[in-house]
C-alpha cells in the first residue's frame, strides 16, 4: 500500500469532515474518490497533504508515518497535487510556472526537456511566455495538471481534474491519466463525472458525511443500491 | 479550450524517466543568470546602457571636487538597504517596515567595535563584517519568530516597525555615562560619534576612506557587486521560489518548498544588506544617532522602493538614487518640506503606478524599443 490512513478524524466546529477514516491506496492503481458535495473529499486531500492537521489518527506514505510532517516534506517524499481551486501562479508566465514546479529536482537540459514535453502534452506550445492567468480556464487547468505530473510523483492527487471540461476534453484527460498510470504513477482522483470514473478507475471509494460509505470496483459501486441513493441521485442535475 | 495537444496525449516514458543529469560549468551558469525572468533588462541594449552608466559614474569624480564626490558617496550608502528591502518586500512579498532596526544595530555595532579596538591592521573591515553579521543575527531571530510563528501580511510590517521604534526609544535614553560598552559611550539621542572611517590595509600606511573620492569608488564597486550578485541570485532557483511565495505561498508549499525557510532566508539577506548600509553610513559620517531608527527613517526606504518598483532590483536601485538625490536637494529648503514631498510622491505612486514609477517607465521604454513583442 502506497498510502494508508488509520482512524483519521477531523472536525470543524460541529462539522465532521473526516470520521475515523481507514483508507488505503495500492501502489499502481487509479483510485477514485466520489461522494456528494460537502462529503469531505477535498478535506481528505488536505489531510493527506498536511494542509489540515487531523484531530486524531495517522497517515502512512510508503510505509512511513508522515502525520507530523509539514506539507512540503510530504510532497518531497513523492506526492504531487492539483487542488480543486486553481493553484497556478497567475501573474507569472507559463514557463515560469513550470520552472518553479520542476526546478528542485531537474536542472539544465533535463529541466528544459521536461518543460517542452509538458508544454506539448498540455497543448500549451507557443504560449510559454504568456501570463498563466490570461489563459482560458481549461488551459489553466491543463497547465496545473502539467505542473503536477511533471514532478515525477509516486502518488498523484487530483481534486476534480475535469471540472469545466467538455466531454471530449474529459475523455482526453482520462487517456492521459491512464498513460501516466501505465508508467507507474499511482493516482487518487476526486471526480463527480461517473463516466470518467468508469473510464479510469481501478477502485472507487465513496465518502458520505466524512465517512467511508462504500468501497470496491467501479461495477460494484455502480450496482450498490445505497450509493445510487446518496450520490448518483444527489448529482443528477 | 483546446485540450491537450494531439501528439502529446501519449505521454512518452521520458516524462517520467529522469535522464542522466549533465554537469554545467558553474561559473557560466551563474553568469547566465545575470539575465532572467525575475529581472528586467536583457540583451545588448541593456548591457551597453549599463556599461555606459558605470563609465559615467566612474569618470564623474574627474569633473567635480572631492567634497562633492564625498556627498555623492552618501547616496550610494543607502542603496544596499533599499535593494535588501526589495528582496524581502518586492520578491518575497513581505513588507518589512523596520529595516532601520538592522541599519541601526549594525551602525552602532561598528561604532562600538571600532571605538574599542581601533582601526589598525584593517580592523574596520572586520568590524564591518561583524556588524553586518550582528544585523543578520537579529534578522534570523526576528524572522524565525515571525515566519515560524505564522506572522503574516501587514503584521510583518507592524512587528518590524515596532522593533525599530523600540530600538530607537532604547538608544535615546542612553545619555548617562553608565551606558557605555567598553570605551564606547552610547550617548542617548546625541548618538555615538568619533569612530574611525573604513580603512584599507596598505603597505606603508592604511588608506583611510573619509567621505572623499576613494570612498566613492569603494562604494560604487560594492554597489555594483551587490546589484549584479542579486541579479544572479534572483534569477537562480532561490529567486524563483521567493517569487512563487509572493504570488501564492500555499501553492509554493505544495510544490515541495519549505516556504518559511525561504522567507527567513530572504529576510536575513535583506537584514544583512540594511546592516551594510548602517555600517557604511556610520563610517561615512563617523556618527550614528537613534533618529536613524525613527519612524521617518523607517518609512523612507519603503517610499524609495515603492517609487522605483519593488518587483525589480534595477528599478529599486534607480528609484532609490533618484529619491535620495531629490530628498537631499529638497532639504536645502527644509527637511519637513522634503518629507512632505516624499509622502506626496508615495501617494502619487500608489495611485498612478502601483508597480513603481521607474519600473513602469522601464516597461514602457522597453515596449517602445521592441515593438516586435520581445521583453527587453
Ligand atoms: N476550513 C474549513 N472550516 C470549516 N468548515 C470546512 C472547512 N473546510 C471544509 N469545511 C466543511 O466541511 C465539509 C466538507 O467539505 P469538503 O470541501 O471536504 O467537501 P467535498 O466533498 O470536497 O465537496 P465538493 O464536492 O463540493 O468539493 C463542508 O461542509 C465544508 O463546508
Ligand atoms: Mg471538494
> What is the CATH topology classification name of the largest domain in chain A?
Rossmann fold
Q: Write out the strand line-up for the largest beta sheet of chain A, numbering strands in chain order.
A: 6-7-8-3-9-10
Low-confidence stretches of chain A: none
Largest interface: pair, residues per side = A-B, 65 and 40 residues
**Could you give the count of β-strands of chain A?**
10
Total number of helical segments of chain A? Answer: 9
Uncertain ranges of chain B: 1-22
Global Rg of chain B: 22 Å
Q: What is the average per-residue confidence, as pLDDT of chain B, rounded to a whole number? A: 91
Tell me the structural class of chain A. alpha/beta
CATH level 1 class label of the largest domain in chain A = Alpha Beta
Provide the β-strand percentage band of chain B.
under 5%
Mean pLDDT of chain A: 91
Based on Cα principal axes, name the global outline of chain A. Answer: globular
Largest sheet of chain B: 2 strands, antiparallel
Shape estimate of chain B = globular
**Known CATH architecture of the largest domain in chain A:** 3-Layer(aba) Sandwich
Question: What is the terminal separation of chain A in angstroms?
Answer: 36 Å
SSE pattern of chain A: EEEHEEHEHHHEHEHEEHH
Amino acid at each position: 500500500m502506497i498510502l494508508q490512513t488509520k482512524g483519521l478524524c477531523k472536525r470543524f466546529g460541529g462539522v465532521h469532515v473526516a470520521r475515523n477514516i481507514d483508507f488505503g491506496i495500492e501502489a499502481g492503481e487509479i483510485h477514485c474518490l466520489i461522494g456528494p458535495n460537502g462529503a469531505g473529499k477535498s478535506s481528505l486531500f488536505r489531510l493527506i497533504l498536511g494542509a489540515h492537521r487531523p484531530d486524531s489518527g495517522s497517515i502512512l506514505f510508503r510505509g512511513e508515518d508522515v502525520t507530523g510532517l509539514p506539507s512540503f516534506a510530504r510532497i518531497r517524499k513523492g506526492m504531487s497535487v492539483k487542488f480543486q481551486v486553481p493553484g497556478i501562479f497567475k501573474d507569472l508566465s507559463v514557463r515560469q510556472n513550470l520552472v518553479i514546479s520542476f526546478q528542485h529536482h531537474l536542472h539544465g537540459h533535463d529541466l528544459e526537456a521536461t518543460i517542452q514535453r509538458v508544454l506539448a502534452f498540455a497543448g500549451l506550445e507557443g504560449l510559454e511566455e504568456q501570463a498563466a492567468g490570461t489563459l482560458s480556464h481549461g488551459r489553466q487547468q491543463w497547465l496545473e495538471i502539467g505542473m503536477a505530473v511533471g514532478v515525477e510523483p509516486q502518488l498523484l492527487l487530483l481534486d476534480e481534474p475535469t471540472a469545466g471540461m467538455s466531454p471530449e476534453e474529459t475523455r482526453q484527460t482520462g487517456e492521459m491519466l491512464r498513460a501516466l498510470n501505465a508508467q507507474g504513477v499511482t493516482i487518487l482522483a476526486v471526480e463527480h463525472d461517473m463516466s470518467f470514473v468508469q473510464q479510469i478507475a481501478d477502485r472507487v471509494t465513496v465518502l458520505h458525511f466524512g465517512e467511508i460509505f462504500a468501497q470496491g470496483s467501479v461495477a460494484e459501486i455502480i450496482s450498490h443500491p445505497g450509493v445510487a441513493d446518496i450520490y448518483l441521485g444527489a448529482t443528477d442535475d | 479550450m483546446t485540450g491537450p495537444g494531439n501528439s502529446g496525449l501519449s505521454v512518452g516514458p521520458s516524462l517520467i524517466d529522469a535522464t542522466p543529469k549533465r554537469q554545467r560549468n558553474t561559473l557560466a551558469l551563474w553568469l547566465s543568470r545575470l539575465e532572467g525572468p525575475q529581472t528586467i533588462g536583457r540583451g545588448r541594449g541593456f548591457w551597453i546602457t549599463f556599461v555606459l552608466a558605470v563609465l559615467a559614474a566612474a569618470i564623474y569624480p574627474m569633473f567635480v571636487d572631492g567634497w562633492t564626490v564625498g556627498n555623492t558617496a552618501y547616496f550610494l550608502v543607502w542603496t544596499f538597504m533599499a535593494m535588501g528591502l526589495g528582496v524581502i518586500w518586492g520578491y518575497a512579498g513581505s513588507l518589512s517596515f523596520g529595516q532601520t532596526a538592522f541599519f541601526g544595530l549594525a551602525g552602532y555595532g561598528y561604532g562600538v567595535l571600532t571605538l574599542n579596538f581601533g582601526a589598525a591592521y584593517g580592523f574596520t573591515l572586520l568590524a564591518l563584517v561583524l556588524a553586518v553579521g550582528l544585523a543578520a543575527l537579529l534578522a534570523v531571530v526576528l524572522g524565525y519568530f515571525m515566519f515560524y510563528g505564522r506572522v503574516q501580511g501587514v503584521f510583518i510590517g507592524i512587528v518590524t516597525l515596532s522593533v525599530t521604534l523600540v530600538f530607537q526609544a532604547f538608544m535615546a535614553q542612553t545619555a548617562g555615562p553608565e551606558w557605555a560598552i567598553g570605551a564606547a559611550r552610547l550617548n542617548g539621542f546625541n548618538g555615538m560619534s568619533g569612530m574611525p572611517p573604513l580603512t584599507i590595509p596598505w603597505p606603508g600606511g592604511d588608506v583611510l576612506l573619509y567621505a572623499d573620492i576613494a570612498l566613492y569608488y569603494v562604494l560604487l564597486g560594492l554597489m555594483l557587486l551587490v546589484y549584479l550578485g542579486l541579479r544572479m541570485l534572483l534569477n537562480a532557483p532561490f529567486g524563483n521560489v521567493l517569487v512563487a511565495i509572493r504570488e501564492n505561498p500555499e501553492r509554493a508549499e505544495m510544490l515541495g518548498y519549505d516556504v518559511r525557510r525561504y522567507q527567513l532566508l530572504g529576510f536575513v539577506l535583506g537584514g544583512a544588506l540594511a546592516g551594510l548600509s548602517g555600517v557604511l553610513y556610520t563610517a561615512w559620517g563617523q556618527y550614528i544617532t537613534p533618529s536613524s531608527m525613527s519612524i521617518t527613517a523607517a518609512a523612507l526606504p519603503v517610499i524609495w522602493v515603492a517609487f522605483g518598483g519593488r518587483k525589480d532590483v534595477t528599478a529599486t536601485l534607480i528609484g532609490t538614487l533618484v529619491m535620495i538625490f531629490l530628498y537631499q536637494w529638497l532639504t536645502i529648503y527644509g527637511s519637513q518640506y522634503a518629507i512632505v514631498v516624499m509622502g506626496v510622491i508615495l501617494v502619487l505612486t500608489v495611485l498612478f503606478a502601483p508597480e513603481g514609477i521607474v519600473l513602469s517607465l522601464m516597461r514602457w521604454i522597453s515596449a517602445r524599443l521592441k515593438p516586435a513583442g520581445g521583453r527587453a
